[in-house]
Structures are given as C-alpha cells and as structure tokens.
Design brief:
globular; single chain; 6-stranded mixed sheet; alpha+beta
Length: 317
C-alpha cells in the first residue's frame, strides 16, 4: 500500500510545501521541531484541511483540493497514535482495546488476542490507564489504533514523552509491528536513534520542504544530509546476521562489509539485526592497524571527502 502526498499550506509566517511517496513499511518524517511534520500527518488524517494538495492512499483520493474532494476523517480508515496515549481513564485496558475493535465495524479486523500478544499487554488487561507506566499506556494506545482495522497507522512522536528506559521498553514492540504485522506506518520523529532503528524509508524535512527522501540506509549515510541530522549523528546503518555467541561473551555478526564483533546483541543466532555505526566512532588508516584494542577492522574504499567547518570533513566509504 502506497501513500502519495502533495501539500501546500501557509500559517503564521510558515509555509509548508512538500511532496513525497511513502511505500510499504515504516516511513519516518524526520526534522527539527517546527519543520511541518505534525502538519503533514494531521492533513493525512483529515484533522487539517490544507489550502492546496492531493493525498492518495492505495489509489483512493483522500484529498484533492482542485477537485474539491476531502474524505472525512472517520471514513479514511487511518489509525492515529499521539504523543500522549489518550486512553479512556474510566475503562480498563481490555475495554479500551474493545472500543478500537468495535469502532472498526468493517468485517474481519485484526485478532485482539494476536495484538495483545504482539504488544505484550496481556497482564495489563484488567488495569485502568492510571495504573500503567507511560510505555504501557503507549502500547495499549497502539493496540487500540490497530484494532480499529486501519489501512495506515499514523504515529506522531509516540515516544517523545517517555524517558530513556521507557523508550527502550517500547522500541522492540514497534519493531515487531514493522516486521510482523504488514501495516504501513507513517511515523513522526526528531530522534535519529529511532529513525535508524525503525525506518524503512526516511523523509527529511527542513523549513517546510523535503530535503531528502529514500531508503533509510541511503538517507542516513548521505553526507549532504548530515548537517540536518546533526554532524554528531552522522553515520551508517548496516544489516547483519547474528551467526554465533562465543564463549568469551562476544557476539559474531556477518554483513556485506565482513565480520563484526559486539559485546552483546539482542537476538539469537540466525536472526537479522540493524547496526548503527556513528562516523565519529570510526578511525581511518591507510594500512591495517596492529596493537590496538579495536575489535572491528574493515577494509573499505574512500569514495568522497566533503570538507566541513574548520578542520572537519565527512568521508564516505
């Protein structure tokens, strides 16, 4: 299922002018605060009527200002997860989930038991939202949105209000959704770590414009895009397979670049993982280094050197 978005909207001295395609998977809208991310998802949801634009979801026109087409929000079959969970406080977790299931009213929706297992919220079913942690509330909110049987799930910085421990708790569940549910997700974030871990596609926004778009590994490793992510966040994503856990505690991973060793990896041998390698953690040498403590030494070819401010430079390998 593909989402096609072309939007133009001006308010308060800010002008949004974007166009992008979101293929199946997790498409992350990334950018600094005030770049237009939430405006885009609100327009897709139907909560904002832009001054001009066209939104197509799997061939259906949700919005076309030229043709005066604007499908009401409740008929778009889009789930929305906000920064705050927005659960019904007087209902138990089970009742909140059942509300999403009731709201679907569209034939065979997702199985509630499968979603409960996928999100690990079985032990929470009899509790009310006031007795849940922030991460637990967000998992329930995600489950309720999925059970409404949407064609597309919007997530507007769902982890922004959580501390690092709660983020670490919920990220594996978001990966499960990406890999096991097949539901397309449009995800808003200004966290590069979240993008690197979750995104299959990245739309990089700045000042109301799309500055880069494409597969996550390509956009995150593009030196031209690095200033918008922040130079300290520049790096690359490698997909690797866990091949062994050694007796000394190290985990062996194989990828296109060769063999890598990590002190730990949250996956069993045979599983694939994403590795994020920050540029600032990489040393370059013209000959193979010896007598150093670095576990990982990979051969590469310098493709591009981009001078930065002062004595800095970004090097593409």
């Amino acid at each position: 299922m593909t989402l096609s978005v072309t939007l133009g909207h001006s308010f308060g001295g800010f002008t949004l002018d974007v166009a992008f395609e979101a293929p199946p998977g997790v498409t992350v809208l990334f950018g600094r605060s005030g770049c237009g991310k939430t405006t885009v998802v609100n327009a897709v949801a139907g909560l904002l009527r832009p001054q001009r634009g066209r939104i197509m979801l799997d061939g259906q026109r949700l919005l076309d200002t030229n043709a005066r087409v604007a499908v009401p929000p409740h008929r778009r079959r889009i789930g929305y997860v906000f920064q705050d969970a927005r659960l019904f406080p007087h209902m138990t977790v089970r009742q909140n989930l059942s509300y999403g299931r009731w709201f679907a009213r569209r034939g065979n929706g997702p199985d509630i038991g499968h979603i409960v297992d996928l999100l690990g919220i079985g032990p929470l079913l009899t509790r009310r939202p006031g007795l849940l942690s922030g991460g637990e509330r967000q998992r329930v909110a995600i489950g309720r949105a999925i059970l409404s049987n949407p064609r597309l799930l919007l997530m507007d910085e769902p982890l922004a209000a959580l501390d690092e421990d709660r983020k670490a708790e919920i990220l594996p569940y978001l990966e499960r959704l990406r890999d096991g549910l097949g539901l397309p997700i449009l995800y808003v974030s200004h966290s590069v770590a979240e993008v690197a871990r979750l995104a299959t596609t990245v739309i990089l926004l700045d000042g109301g414009r799309v500055r880069a778009a494409g597969p996550a590994a390509c956009v995150l490793s593009d030196p031209q895009a690095a200033p918008l992510f922040g130079l300290r966040e520049a790096g690359a994503i490698l997909t690797a397979r866990v091949t062994a856990r050694e007796a000394d505690g190290l985990v062996r991973l194989d990828c296109q670049a060769g063999t890598l060793w990590l002190p730990d990896a949250p996956a069993a041998p045979g599983n694939s993982v994403r590795l994020r390698v920050l540029a600032q953690d990489v040393m370059l040498a013209l000959t193979r280094p010896e007598g150093i403590s670095a576990l990982n030494v990979l051969a590469g070819t310098v493709r591009e050197v981009i001078p930065g401010a002062g004595h800095d430079a970004l090097v593409r390998l």
